[in-house]
Amino acid sequence: MTNQIKKLETIFYGATFDDFLLRPQHSMVWTRKEVDLTMPLTKSISINMPIIGANMDTVTREKMMNTLSLEGCFGFIDRNCSIEDEAARVKYVKTQHSFVIENPIVLYKKVTIREAKSVIKKKGVSGILLEDEPGKRVLAGILSHRDVLRSDEKDSHLVQEFMTPFKELVTAKPGISIGEAEKIMFRNRIEKLPLIDKKRRIKGLITMKDLRLAKQKPYSNKDKKGRLLAGAAIGASGDFMDRAEALIRAGADCLLMDVAHADSDVIKKAFKNFKSKFKGIPIVCGNVATGGGAKFLMELGADAIKVGVGPGRGCRTRLEVGAGVPQMQAIREAYLVTNGKIPIIADGGVKNDKDIFVAIAAGASTVMLGSMLSGTDESPGFITDDPVTKQRIKIYRGMTSPEAMADNSTLDNLEEALSTPQEGQSVKVPYVGSVVGVINRISGHLRSAVSYAGEKSLYDAHKKIAQNPEDFLIRLSLASQKESFDR
Question: d(Cα 145, Cα 59) in Å, to the nearest integer?
Fold first, then answer.
């Protein structure tokens, strides 16, 4: 036995989520709304709620990533696509809800109304900045939604005939605070505030829509420039370095080097190559399921470790290969080796909201969700009716399922991909509406759990219980499992 297995508490041997209950403690909170759910994602990034969307093509793409960050959570956009597509998805998130749009769309004032309408429709904006000369980005005016309505049936005319000219615009200097920008826009009753330098060159744009969103979602996860945080996945072979470079250029705040078995020489070589070129970019590594694997990744220099081999609904590794560790034991082994020095992402096996708190109590910092998020409006895929149950459903699939393998293959290697033994599967999940509802439900249950733990923040509950779990967690018998969970 290795050292970390010797230190493993008896209650965690062979244990998973349904094996535990939390012993209620004296509560210190007046209202559960005041409970803080902030937890570390990596050594340098914290998020306002410990939920991470799985890097799967039926879970986290741009729509899900955008909403998760808005709601204080996080996610990793999947890599089951071209480098260009994954980078474009990151860029989409980084440009959606920033306080300042750093590189707003700009058109030459002498393009036609038809061309301007096409760009407005394609980009999904309500108006557009115009420049005096092509490529110079010297502000000439704005073509607003109202101006577009005035130009109806005059698509061949130039936008300069209908734009609001510079002399009638209200502008501001770069670096303006969100509070001052709000005052200017309210005072002048404007929806857009261009930011320009002394030479009238366009340096940014602030919209009332983004100001309102910033006030409505103060708990959103944002970078120093006020843009939503975005994560993305890479592999450990093939084009992974090119993919990493493209994702970083697109604005990714954190990357995930994700392979099925990360306690390997493949990861060791890939990680060293990554760190030699991309310094200062937080990188999560996974997956591992043992203390030895966690120690290996920590010593490599990973900024967080993803733990879990085979517990997920879309994974058949334990069925087909017989490899894995029960998830609570795996989390605990990783925590005992890392001793809280590096965040742990518990990946897989969560079926109920209470599993999230139990994972964090054992030592995880955050929890990655797949199937629980896959039946939402924001997940990729279509809503269909189950022909048998008539229930509305979506499809959730593991990334080594035959369908996912086929989608990530070219015609040249399709036969090879499909002939490789798969360790994933596709399953039907109920359609549940917006992921916002799921997040709100989970956040409420986590706050209640923190109250039962006798703390005011999830982080304090995590630190207290993870240090002495036998004082706070009860290992259940079969009879007590039935008493607790059979309803």
Answer: 35
- Cβ(223)–Cβ(253) under 8 Å? yes
Q: Looking at 364-481, which runs of residues are DSSP E strands?
A: 366-369, 384-385, 392-397, 426-430, 473-475
> Token pair for residue 458?
């999830």
> Does the annotation count 315 as an active-site position?
yes
Length of the chain as a residue count: 487
Q: Pick the closest to residue 296 from 364, 375, 288, 373 (CA basis).
A: 288
Model pLDDT for residues 2-11, shown as the tens digit of each residue: 444 458 999 9
- Global pTM value: 0.85
Question: CA-to-CA distance for 209 and 231, rounded, in angstroms?
Answer: 24
User: Three-state DSSP class for 50?
Assistant: coil
Share of the chain above pLDDT 90, in %: 72
Strands 366-369 and 46-47: unpaired
What lies within 8 Å, CB to CB, of 234 at 6+ separation is: 79, 240, 243, 244, 247, 255, 256, 257, 258
Return the DSSP state at 2: -
pLDDT at residue number 146: 84
Q: At what angle do helices 353-362 and 458-467 cross, to 10 degrees?
A: 60
d(CA 430, CA 236): 34
DSSP labels, 131-181: ESSTTT-BEEEEE-HHHHHHTTT-TTSBGGGTSEEGGG---B-TT--HHHH
Residue of 73, 254, 285, 315 marked catalytic: 315
pLDDT at site 61 = 97
**Which residues sit opposite 106 in a β-bridge?**
129
Peptide bond into 287 cis (omega under 30): yes
Residues 6+ apart with CB under 8 A from 452: 22, 24, 25, 27
